[in-house]
Amino acid sequence: MSEAATLGTSPPSAQQRAPLRTAAPQSGFAPWKDPSKSPIVRFENVVKRFGDFTAVKDCTLDIYEREFFALLGPSGCGKTTLLRMLAGFEKPTSGRILVAGQDITELAPYERPVNMMFQSYALFPHMTVEQNIGFGLKQDGMPKDQIAKRVEETMAMLELGKFGKRKPHQLSGGQQQRVALARAIAKKPRIVLLDEPLGALDKRLRQQAQFELMRIQETTGTTFIIVTHDQEEAMTVSSRIAVMDHGEFRQVATPGDIYEAPNSRYVANFIGDVNLFEGKVVKIEGGFAEIDWGPGLARFKSVAPEGCAGDQQVWLSLRPEKIRITLDKPSEGNNALPGKVVDVGYLGSISHYHVELANGQRVKALRANSARTVERTINWEDNVWLEWPPETGIVLTR
Amino acid sequence: MRRWLVILVPYLWLLVFFLIPFFIVFKISLSDIATAIPPYVPLFTGLSDIGNYLSQLDFENYTFIFEDPLYVNAYLSALKIAGISTFLTLLVAYPIAYGMARAPKEWQPTLVMLVILPFWTSFLIRVYAWIGILKKEGLLNLFLMNLGLINEPLTILNTTTAVYIGIVYSYLPFMILPLYASLEKINPALLEAAADLGSPPWKSFWQVTFPLSIPGVLAGCFLVFIPATGEFVIPDLLGGSDTLMIGKTLWNEFFNNRDWPVSSAVAVILLLVLVVPIVLFQRNQEKQREAAR
User: Fold this and answer.
1) How far apart, in whole angstroms, are the C-alpha atoms of residue B200 and residue B193?
2) Whole-prediction pTM value?
3) How far apart are CA A162 and CA A156, in angstroms?
């Protein structure tokens, strides 16, 4: 099998890795758009209640082969419960879970074709690294020499070669994390579940580990499902993200779509920084909506969303980096609002500006410091103009 | 200086209540029996006569003990009874400790208290109570006969079986508590991980739960085995004439034969026999402390 062949090769170098990743979104990897593809995982109207508390409310979701799928949300949103139901540790109150078309709702965890990497790693403390990684293979009754071979391959892929004979408590946090990942992929499961896999690592190690996860996912061609509360992590690693809140999916889309086309204030707020303007639709003309933002603000133009009608309450979501901040009044064509700088944050590569508008609302804007010196820097108390093309703001109806 | 004082207190305690009594017993074990009060010679009369005093001490009692199969058999039989009852205690205690560790967190302090509860009654009274249960017209026989399971009352009291029952019952908490402590520490995610990797629950028990509970198993076994070896009350009250245990032999030697030198020698040998498991127990505790770090 080709899968076995790729698993055995030594890890590709960094130069080889980079194009692999950047190519993926452009190469049109979008099986969720292809009606001929059937999903590898399907949640069908899954509900989970713990006593009075409903952790997961009627969730329906398809995940496709080779996806790196992220379940993203604040703690208590039901993302871990959903993952644990797929692993078999929790039983849905109602609904079905299918893997490759087969109903696995009633199967015990040890009968399921999925392997999980635990948040606490859950490495067996009385076993060596080799024994930990080989544990799953031993359960399948694989002959000893084959287990040893597979363990060695997996350790090589994760650069764990030196640590085979050590016990988990003799390893650093980053090494333990790699052992936990190695154990989850050693059986070559069709689906690997990752429950906050990088939560225990510090920020630098975490970024390294994210790229490692992506590399492993691509070399093995396995479907990865990750649970995380870290939106940057979800954006970095995943092919699609499901944003969850209170046991429901708020939006399921690619990282790009989630960021550039959020479907609600909740999603816009959850992913990245955003400025929100609240207003009422006055009229719609030629695809553009005229919106009353209340006293003190001009009725700038915005693209009208589908199903938007007059007199409806709406919100405009505007990302800080999409706003240009200038000292002179910009020319016609773009939306522009005057304001006064109240705060400046210089971060080296970029600067943050907080600008107060005529109605008292504060708007965040970003500016890349592309030149080393600028004739006139923008400073506190400066009167400035905020400018953006009408298409960059998104009108949200909920 | 103050640190020395703190360390001094336990050492003084051990010196006064263990080391000095031990040397007295050891000295008596080297003496000869005599019809006197106290019933042995020589007696320490002063430093001036020390040469004569020391010359009268010898290891005669020890050679006597090793030459008489009665004593050797009593030691071996005590070790055997202690070993078997330790194993039986483990078999009974493991499921109890396992159930306690798996019980809802809020119940666990209550369960631990229930295990300790028997200590609130005198040990002697509890062993006496077993006589009432095990004797011919006792509760157990009445119960079984009323159920129609047996026609004749069983002879349990005054047999070795009764000694096993007594030891298992009396020492059960010493086995349950260390087992519970080690089982309770096991991260439940480990069992989930084992299941996730394809191990059914019964296999997970032998591959994960049991190996991780071994420190508790060893601690519990030593805590039962060591005192059970020298046990006197249980074989005396529940055992019959065929139950040979060194604790009983020691008592007979001391109170019936009034042979203090020989019984002291028996006690010293018993202590030496038990040094081996005690040292092993301490090494186990040490290892556990290291693993916890």
Assistant:
1) 11
2) 0.81
3) 9
Test A126 with B212 for CB contact under 8 angstroms. yes
DSSP symbol at B95: H
Distance from CA of A37 to the nearest CA of B (A): 28
Q: Are A272 and A321 in contact (CB under 8 A)?
A: no
Angle at which helices A14-26 and A203-220 cross, to 10°: 70
Q: How far is CA B121 from CA B126, B128, B236, in A?
A: 7, 12, 19
**CA–CA separation, A30 vs A45, rounded Å?**
23
The tokens describing B162, both together, are 């009764």
Of all helices (H) and strands (E), which one includes residue B32?
strand B32-33
Contacts of B129 (CB under 8 A, 6+ apart): none
* DSSP SS3 for B104: coil
Residue with tokens 């940057």: A232
Residues of B with CB under 8 A from a CB of A: 187, 189-190, 192-200, 203, 207-208, 211-212, 291
Contact A96, A45 (CB under 8 A): yes
* Strands A94-99 and A41-50, sheet pairing: antiparallel
DSSP-assigned letter for residue B154: P
> What is the number of other CB atoms lying within 10 angstroms of the CB of residue A291?
28
Secondary structure (3-state) at B37: coil
CB contacts, 8 Å: A120 with chain B: 187, 189
B216 CB neighbours in chain A (<8 A) are: none
DSSP run (H or E) holding B218: helix B210-229
Residue B263 has, within 13 A of its CA and on its CB side, a CA count of 17
CB < 8 Å & 24+ apart, contacts of A344-352: A344/A378, A344/A379, A344/A380, A352/A320
The pLDDT profile of chain B, 293 residues, written as one tens digit per residue, is: 678 888 898 899 999 999 999 999 999 999 998 888 888 888 888 788 888 888 888 899 999 999 999 899 999 999 999 999 999 999 999 999 999 999 999 999 999 999 999 989 999 999 999 999 999 889 999 999 999 888 888 899 999 999 999 999 999 999 999 999 999 999 999 999 999 999 999 999 999 999 999 999 999 999 999 999 999 999 999 988 888 899 989 998 999 989 999 999 999 999 999 888 888 888 888 887 776 65
A63 φ, ψ (degrees, to nearest 5): -125, 135
**What is the ipTM for the molecules in this complex?**
0.80
Say how far apart CA A141 and CA A147 lie, in whole Å: 9
The structure tokens 């402390």 sit at: B289
**Chain B residues touching A183 at Cβ < 8 A:** 193, 197
